Model the fold of this input.
Amino acid sequence: MKTIRFFRPLLFFFALFSCTKVINVNLNNANPNIVIEGIVSDAPGPYQVTLTQTVNFSDPNIFPPVTGATVKITDSISGITDSLKELVPGTYVTQKLLQGLTGHTYQLYVLSKGQEYTASSTMPAKVNLDSVTFSTTNIFGTKSTSAIANFQDPAGIANYYTFTENVNGQAVNQTFNFSDRLSDGKYIRRQLFNDSSYINPGDQVTIEMHCVDNQVWQYFNTLGQARGNNSQSVTPANPLSNISNNALGYFSAQTTQSGLAILE
Done:
């Protein structure tokens, strides 16, 4: 007589799920955290750093500015340090002729409420954006159009990219990212999928392409996973910041260029 071997594992399976414990997570009353977002690019300045503060989960998404901070950016090669001026509450801009240059490392220093925060980012070489084109799909009778960034990825170099998109002058609230890990040296046609934005005939679309370092790419990659933009999304968590002292946000030294196209 044959022995049935699946009975005990099934008992274990049902027992496991019958003993589920409910854990209540208090999303409110968390200590506020500072959010730092700063960019130095190869375009002419001034460059900007914004400081805001997180709010509780149930509060409106209005993030208070962090005012009265000391903010500095230093070019580690030229030795130039720029002390940023608070132009409006929470927004700090460079004052000197600090120019973003490929291969230069830039260091950010922030002092706020007795806490120091630092970050470092090296500007990679620029990769040229050749053109912006479109791809239209028809799924169950519904047409959807996405913009495509076309460019040649350099061979033998690890390259990391981020993209932002504007449709008729309105920014799409999403940063797209791409790594050449699986396509080094190939000609890239990077399609920018966005479920919440539809491009119609006559629309003017502008794509900004940025070459960033690995840490900045990691930030936007994990941010996309946290928002569910990646099919391999993991348990939601704060994106990987390159700023010290548990600050949220990122500091990026990056190249920038843009391309424009109109959907016919």
